[in-house]
Design goal:
By secondary structure, the chain is of the alpha+beta class. The protein has ten helices and 22 strands. Helix 1 packs parallel to helix 2, helix 7 packs across helix 8 and helix 7 packs across helix 10. The N and C termini lie far apart (62 Å). GO terms for molecular function: dihydrolipoyllysine-residue acetyltransferase activity.
Length: 463
């Protein structure tokens, strides 16, 4: 029986990917572990390995195809003894089996993704089985509103409620006219869809707290373009990375109550120690074994500060606080078209030279989009350093699921007062953004003070 090869989900947040390259062609034999394709996500390019043995019967998605949805069938394998030429492509509306097997396997519910989490769509009949993808005999025409009922995926229903849209005013683009996530997004962009009528539960008097009003939607594309003369701008479509960055930034700023703490750190001792350590670095193949940067000290100091103030080394969830044991520090790296945050795991346990070399390696591979998901996902905090661009100070947006992020400005000579006398010192301004649900003001101040102690006494980072 033929085997469907599906577009894999290479990270928890992946919804679509670009099929960059095939390493096989129709007629090739493959075995488990063989690299068969390269997939581009918003963050990286990754190789996909075969998990079954067989012959490539059909390639359904060609190289260079963009925005292929997770779980779409991209190719078909013929098993041993099966005629590859006789294998047929699956019907357009058929759901791709989760286990990759052919028609003898029970088809799963089609899926939409919500923030990277698979959300089962409901069947075409309210409360009915999702196995039957054909309209029922009493449903009349298949337009998503048959017999007065509205057929929409759970995700579409939730989004419509959040945006205050009336589903009955929308047309569905899903199978048999079902309303899906894309229809809601298009309605919001166009400013369409009538406001949903209040339900009885919403209008009935009650002492229970009311559901918060949905967040206001921004201006539609059409409204924005009308503000500029035709031909005065170039339309540059968003790529998947920019869309993901935009979505996550909006999520962070609308769901995380940020507040900010700023401190000035004197770094003359750090600069002196850094110069001495680099000068003493052993040579390997006529190159220094390491070359420390100020950012390497920042990463280690941030990791040690979290260990010194473990109550700040946390992640907020709705049911409980996750109190982390290690300090996994993400570091924002600028790459073409956006940024990515490789994570130095257990940074408190690593020497400065190990942190430096690990960071250089991951930053280089990040710019080539060669990082693995486990190298940039998770983490307990993050560092964003714009000092090399001459930025004196700024406030960074927290990167979920972190509770803190440290924004680092440029080290510069400034006038400071010591013992009532003005002198000159190298000062670096840092700003800690915190999730107020998890890290209160006093706790954040304690953590920033710990960071300042380590940075201003850099020998403590060598112990």
């Amino acid at each position: 029986m033929s085997i469907n090869i599906l577009m894999p989900a290479l990270s928890p947040t992946m919804e679509k990917g670009n099929l960059a390259k095939w390493h096989v062609k129709e007629g090739d034999a493959v075995a488990p572990g063989d690299v068969i394709a390269e997939i581009e996500t918003d963050k990286a390019t990754m190789e996909v390995e075969a998990i079954d043995e067989g012959t490539v019967a059909k390639i359904l998605v060609s190289e260079g195809t963009e925005d292929v949805a997770v779980n779409d069938v991209i190719a078909i394998l013929a098993e041993e003894g099966e005629d590859a030429d006789a294998v047929e492509a699956p019907a357009e509306e058929a759901a791709a089996p989760q286990n990759g097997k052919g028609a003898d396997a029970a088809p799963p519910e089609p899926k939409e993704t919500e923030g990277g989490e698979a959300v089962p769509r409901e069947g075409l009949h309210e409360g009915g089985s999702s196995d039957n993808l054909q309209p029922s005999s009493d449903s009349g025409k298949s337009d998503g509103k048959s017999s007065g009922r509205i057929f929409a995926s759970p995700l579409a229903k939730r989004l419509a409620k959040e945006k205050g849209l009336d589903l009955s005013a929308l047309s569905g683009s899903g199978p048999h006219g079902r309303i899906v996530k894309q229809d809601i997004e298009e309605a919001v962009e166009k400013g369409g869809g009538q406001a949903a009528a209040p339900t009885a539960a919403e209008t009935a008097p009650t002492s229970a707290p009311k559901t918060p009003a949905p967040a206001p939607a921004g201006m539609s594309d059409e409204q924005i373009r009308k503000m500029f003369a035709e031909g005065s701008y170039e339309v540059v479509p968003h790529d998947s990375m920019r869309r993901t960055i935009a979505r996550r930034l909006v999520e962070a700023k609308t769901t995380i109550p940020h507040f900010y703490l700023t401190s000035d750190c004197e770094i003359d001792a750090l600069l002196k120690l850094r110069s001495e350590i680099n000068a003493a670095a052993p040579a390997i193949d006529d190159k220094p074994a390491y070359k420390l940067s100020v950012n390497d000290f920042v990463i280690k100091a941030m990791a040690m500060a979290l260990q010194a103030v473990p109550e700040a080394n946390v992640t907020w969830t709705q049911e409980a606080m996750l109190k982390h044991k290690g300090s996994d520090v993400g570091v924002a790296v600028s790459i073409p078209g956006g940024l990515i945050t490789p994570v130095i795991r257990d940074a408190e346990k690593k020497t400065l030279s190990v942190i430096s070399n690990e960071m250089k390696d991951m930053a280089g591979r990040a710019r080539e989009r060669k990082l693995k998901p486990e190298e940039y996902q998770g983490g307990t905090t993050a560092v964003s350093n714009l000092g090399m661009y001459g930025i004196r100070d700024f406030a960074a947006v927290i990167n979920p699921p972190h509770a803190t992020i440290l924004a680092v400005g440029a080290g510069e000579k400034r006038a400071v007062v010591r013992d009532d006398r003005v002198t000159v010192a190298s000062i670096m301004t840092v700003t800690l953004s915190t999730d107020h649900r998890a890290v209160d003001g006093a706790l954040g101040a304690e953590m920033l003070a710990a960071f300042k102690r380590y940075i201003e006494n850099p020998m403590t980072l060598l112990i």
